[in-house]
């Protein structure tokens, strides 16, 4: 008997096919991506995710993007800021247990209040953000949250969702091609290659809730005060309400509901 799945149209059979067949169907606009072969269970999130984009593809693009960033941005020479980011970042990376990644933490000399991470564990912190965080715990909030996005595989999931929504034949062709480097420009349409990948690709509300929760967990495991996460995010919201929205909030929108959920998680976990 065929496996069944609940959809808005009722219970339908799951059609199993390999990824090549699926993506060809997506390119033609004829396949609904509810197939078991393209989902993966994420232990950190406790749920399954649609995964059309492979780990190899995301790793390659991440490395390309990181190299572009190091060339296009100005790396800070402020030894104090660099030590702070390295100190906090290393503790969060160890506390998170995500030791399979080659973590790297770099301070870019830029007045924007911003930070971002690539799926391969490369973290960029702008000097403008370091000027407003009050202590190491608040910086750990930022890095812990970014590590949460990595553990949640949110970039891969979002890219896969965009592809599954029917991004076009050219995107399917990219996913089918295993060459990689020569297609980086085409991948930009889905993942936002270059700095847009780390800075301008917004996550969904669900992703933000998940990264908040994981970030608080990682902070506590790393001996930072999770309560300072609320102080940091409330400060970001206050800046936004005064008409000076930090660039950080363009990809990490903050609101009262998120803060309530984060506060509830901190209290329920005994972190407060």
From TrEMBL:
Residues 81-264 form the Peptidase M48 domain. It comes from Glycocaulis albus. The lineage of its organism: Bacteria, Pseudomonadati, Pseudomonadota, Alphaproteobacteria, Maricaulales. The keyword Protease applies. Keywords: Hydrolase, Metal-binding, Metalloprotease, Protease, Zinc. Binds 1 zinc ion per subunit. This is Zinc metalloprotease. The keyword Metal-binding applies. It comes from the Bacteria. GO terms for molecular function: metallopeptidase activity. InterPro entries: Mito/Outer_Membr_Metalloprot (IPR051156), Peptidase_M48 (IPR001915), TAT_signal (IPR006311). Belongs to the peptidase M48 family. Its cofactor is Zn(2+).
């Amino acid at each position: 008997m065929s496996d069944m799945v609940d959809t808005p149209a009722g219970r339908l059979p799951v059609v199993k096919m390999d990824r090549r067949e699926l993506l060809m169907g997506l390119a033609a606009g004829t396949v609904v991506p509810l197939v078991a072969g393209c989902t993966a269970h994420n232990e950190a999130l406790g749920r399954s995710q649609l995964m059309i984009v492979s780990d190899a593809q995301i790793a390659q693009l991440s490395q390309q993007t990181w190299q572009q960033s190091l060339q296009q941005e100005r790396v800070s020479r402020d030894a104090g800021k660099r030590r702070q980011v390295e100190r906090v970042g290393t503790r969060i990376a160890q506390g998170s247990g995500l030791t399979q990644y080659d973590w790297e933490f770099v301070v870019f000399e830029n007045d924007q209040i911003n930070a971002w991470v690539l799926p391969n564990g490369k973290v960029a912190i702008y000097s403008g953000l370091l000027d407003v965080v009050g202590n190491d715990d608040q910086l750990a909030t930022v890095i812990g949250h970014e590590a949460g996005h990595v553990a949640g595989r949110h970039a891969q999931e979002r890219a896969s969702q965009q592809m599954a929504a029917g991004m076009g034949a050219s995107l399917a062709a990219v996913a089918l091609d295993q060459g990689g480097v020569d297609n980086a420009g085409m991948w930009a349409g889905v993942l936002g290659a270059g700095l847009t990948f780390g800075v301008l690709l917004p996550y969904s509300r669900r992703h933000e809730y998940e990264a908040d929760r994981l970030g608080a967990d990682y902070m506590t495991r790393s001996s930072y005060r999770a309560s300072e996460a609320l102080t940091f995010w409330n400060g970001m919201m206050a800046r936004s309400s005064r008409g000076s929205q930090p660039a950080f909030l363009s990809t990490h929108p903050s609101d009262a509901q998120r803060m309530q959920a984060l506060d509830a998680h901190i209290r329920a976990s005994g972190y407060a």
